């Protein structure tokens, strides 16, 4: 029973919440959630990046990160850093009307939450999705995670106006430290996404599909279990060429992603981008320039035909 | 995995908080789930080192590291009081209470407008007060029933435009009914509610099933069965279902109907905070309650002898329990007796839910009833209560701390070692 022990002053309460520190950004996960948040459930979902009066030239950007045990503290660091990505893109003018979607990748063979996908947002609502990501830990201990399932979703369950209307690919960043499975398992697709496939989809085919509409990058961060493992890096280089990038300093993740987008959009060249970062007080310029050295030399191949080409391009991303 | 449901079989204040704290101290409890009432709950927990907190919206297990709280959709959530409560918890060494909280987005919000309306009505009743706590919980429930589609709910805190519209409509409707309300402007309220949404994990109703499968949960009731909205003694009741019904409903939704241990809490003195029937009231009893002072909304804290007639009625209304937790046994030698019959009747029969006329008639009879005492103070309280209520006493409490609890019988409550 009671009497209302606690102050209900509306002005105090706002201050108290603002002062309340130590919020784990993964409040949903830390509250004990062990299943996908409904807002992030890929089942029967289609994620759309659409133009609007406010954002007439939307640029779709997706950041998916591995949340399994091998990543150690990487997901939490990313979670703290990624909210700065939108501001960075806008301040530097690297992308017109960026719309960002966050998501998470686990292991569909043993994790309870193998795929989580937010929505494309043009404002800080994307941070809400970040906060709803369940950190599985877990993983299979096989040096393999379900990246192919995430790529399947991106290939067949996203619609972007930058592609539909302007023939421009969006940007997909996968942050992880392990290998993908050799094929997209039709049973996992049926269970987690809801599509009825007649057969498994080979990894190479799904990479072709996803790279048709998404300029796809694999970032291998320092601080994860297999960082620096040549096996992992070679695997992704084989699939994505120079778009497989080692990230020495996780704190530079936003700068790396932002500058990658800026290079792709031809809004900036690498030297200018590094200079921009320096000017903005970033301490990450060394890391970023090292990570992107291979990317800075060539502009992104432009896709001029509408709609999608009928013949799939060769595997991976062709660059000059 | 045995979930435990904890309900008060009196008028509240029997010691649910201390029982829930003991449960969480003696076994790995995943989450404490609130399933009725709101911020007017006041469940006191005292630790052996002297730390004390009055739990209103956080579960009474929050002193125990890692134990989470879930506010289900049946709770009226007060984000303002929640912030103050979290601050006090931080001051007594629990800095992460908000991180261990999940709130169902469908839960109604209690707002300054509900509170202002609540107080305006209670003042207008004058001497005929119902014993409301002045927190607007009942007001929020009433408004939610009248305007289910526009009543402000927890999830609205995530969309300020929607919340602003709903708060303004609420204010306008209540003002039209009651005159100007003593409450801040809508735009002054928004920052607190949106800050709440930024800080606290808001989940949907499907979240609970996962929690119930993740580990042992304790359902912590608020108030008492004798204050139940349908079975209480109208109009001295609360706008809340205080029986096991909501908790059992939540379990059923998760496919776990009837699997939990039902624990009823009673103290050896039947008490009541505020007006309404208390047949065994005895102002000569040398008792005082350190945590329940007189307050302007509920008035005096009243003590009576153990009212077995009323508690038998509560047991019947709640559908029985697996065991009883009997508290305040440290008061056993203060001359307390057991009342097994009234002068006018020896049984109270629960009626169908919703028949408030019947309940009001019952109240009239109870206000005129006199207690009958057939014997002196019992030598063995647990045995005497067991016999009077026909229900086993499984847990006894002899002091405010978890260390002052003893398992008397029953295996389900036996602590993990």
UniProtKB/TrEMBL annotation, chain A:
Residues 37-57 are annotated as: Disordered. Residues 38-54 have a biased composition (Basic and acidic residues). This is VWA domain-containing protein. It comes from Micromonospora carbonacea.
UniProtKB/TrEMBL annotation, chain B:
Its cofactor is Mg(2+). Its main location: cytoplasm. Its EC number is 6.3.4.4. Homodimer. The active site is at residues 13, 43. The gene is purA. It is found in: Cytoplasm. This is Adenylosuccinate synthetase. One of its GO terms (cellular component) is cytoplasm. Keywords: Cytoplasm, GTP-binding, Ligase, Magnesium, Metal-binding, Nucleotide-binding, Purine biosynthesis. Binds 1 Mg(2+) ion per subunit. Pfam families: Adenylsucc_synt. Pathway: Purine metabolism; AMP biosynthesis via de novo pathway; AMP from IMP: step 1/2. One of its GO terms (molecular function) is magnesium ion binding. One of its GO terms (biological process) is IMP metabolic process. It comes from the Bacteria. IMP binds at residues 223, 238. Belongs to the adenylosuccinate synthetase family. Plays an important role in the de novo pathway of purine nucleotide biosynthesis. Catalyzes the first committed step in the biosynthesis of AMP from IMP. GTP binds at residues 328-330, 397-399. Gene3D superfamilies: Adenylosuccinate Synthetase, subunit A, domain 1, Adenylosuccinate Synthetase, subunit A, domain 2, Adenylosuccinate Synthetase, subunit A, domain 3. InterPro entries: Adenylosuccinate_synth_dom1, Adenylosuccinate_synth_dom2, Adenylosuccinate_synth_dom3, Adenylosuccinate_synthetase, P-loop_NTPase.
């Amino acid at each position: 029973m009671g009497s209302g022990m606690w102050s209900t002053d509306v002005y105090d309460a706002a201050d108290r919440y603002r002062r309340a520190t130590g919020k784990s950004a993964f409040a949903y996960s830390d509250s004990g959630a062990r299943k996908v948040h409904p807002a992030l459930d890929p089942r029967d979902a289609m994620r759309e990046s659409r133009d609007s009066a406010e954002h007439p030239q939307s640029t779709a950007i997706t950041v998916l990160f591995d949340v399994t045990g091998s990543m150690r503290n990487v997901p939490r660091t990313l979670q703290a850093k990624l909210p700065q990505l939108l501001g960075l893109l806008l301040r530097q003018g690297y992308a017109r009307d960026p719309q960002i979607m966050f998501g998470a990748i686990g292991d569909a063979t043993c994790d309870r939450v193998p795929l989580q996908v937010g929505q494309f947002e043009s404002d800080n609502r994307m941070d809400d999705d970040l906060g709803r990501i369940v950190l599985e830990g877990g993983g299979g201990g096989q040096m393999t995670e379900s990246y192919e399932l995430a790529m399947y979703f991106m290939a067949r369950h996203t619609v972007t106006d930058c592609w539909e209307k302007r023939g421009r690919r969006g940007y997909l960043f996968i942050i992880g430290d392990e290998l993908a499975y050799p094929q997209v398992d039709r049973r996992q697709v049926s269970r987690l996404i809801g599509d009825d496939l007649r057969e498994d989809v080979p990894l190479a085919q799904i990479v072709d599909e996803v790279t048709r509409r998404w300029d796809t990058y694999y970032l291998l961060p320092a601080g994860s279990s297999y960082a620096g493992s040549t096996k992992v890096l070679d695997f992704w280089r084989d699939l994505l060429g120079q778009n497989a990038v080692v990230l020495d300093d996780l704190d530079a993740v936003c700068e790396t992603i932002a500058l990658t987008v800026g290079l792709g959009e031809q809004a900036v060249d690498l030297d200018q981008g590094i200079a921009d970062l320096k000017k903005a007080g970033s301490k990450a310029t060394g890391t970023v320039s090292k990570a992107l050295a291979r990317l800075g030399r060539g502009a992104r191949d432009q896709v001029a035909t509408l709609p999608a080409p009928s013949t799939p391009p060769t595997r991976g991303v062709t660059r000059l | 995995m045995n979930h435990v449901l904890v309900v008060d079989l009196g008028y509240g204040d029997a010691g649910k908080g201390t029982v829930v704290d003991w449960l969480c101290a003696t076994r790995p409890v995943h989450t404490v789930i609130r399933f009725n009432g709101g911020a007017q709950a006041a469940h006191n927990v005292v630790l052996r080192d002297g730390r004390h907190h009055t739990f209103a919206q956080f579960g009474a297990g929050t002193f125990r590291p890692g134990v989470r709280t879930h506010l289900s959709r049946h709770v009226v959530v007060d984000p303002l009081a929640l912030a103050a409560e979290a601050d006090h918890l931080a001051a007594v060494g629990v800095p992460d209470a908000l991180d261990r909280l999940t709130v169902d987005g469908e839960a109604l919000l209690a707002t300054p407008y509900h509170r202002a309306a609540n107080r305006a009505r209670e003042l207008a009743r004058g001497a005929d007060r119902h014993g409301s706590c002045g927190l607007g919980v009942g007001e929020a429930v009433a408004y939610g029933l009248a305007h289910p589609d526009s009543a402000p709910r927890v999830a609205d805190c995530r969309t300020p435009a929607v919340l602003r519209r709903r708060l303004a409509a609420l204010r306008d409707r209540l003002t039209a009914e009651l005159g100007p309300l003593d409450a801040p402007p809508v735009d002054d309220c928004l920052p607190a509610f949106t800050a709440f949404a930024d800080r606290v994990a808001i989940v949907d109703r499907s979240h609970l099933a996962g929690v119930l499968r993740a580990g042992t949960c304790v359902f912590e009731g608020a108030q008492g069965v004798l204050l139940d909205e349908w079975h209480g003694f109208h109009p001295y009741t609360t706008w809340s279902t205080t029986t096991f019904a909501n908790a059992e409903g939540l379990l059923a939704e998760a496919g776990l109907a009837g699997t939990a241990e039902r624990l009823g809490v009673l103290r050896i003195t039947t008490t009541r905070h505020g007006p309404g029937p208390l047949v065994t009231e005895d102002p000569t009893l040398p008792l005082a309650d350190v945590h329940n002072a007189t307050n302007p909304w509920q008035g005096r804290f009243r003590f009576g002898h153990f009212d077995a007639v009323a508690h038998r009625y509560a047991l019947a209304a709640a559908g029985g329990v697996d065991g009883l937790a009997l508290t305040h046994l440290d008061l056993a030698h203060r001359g307390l007796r057991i009342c097994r019959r009234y002068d006018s009747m020896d049984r109270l029969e629960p009626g169908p839910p919703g028949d408030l006329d019947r309940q009001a008639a019952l109240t009239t009879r109870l206000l005129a009833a006199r207690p009958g005492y057939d014997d002196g103070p019992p030598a063995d309280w647990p045995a005497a209560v067991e016999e009077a209520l026909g229900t086993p006493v499984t847990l006894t409490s002899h002091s405010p701390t978890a260390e002052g609890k003893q398992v008397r019988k029953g295996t389900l409550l036996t602590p993990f070692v």
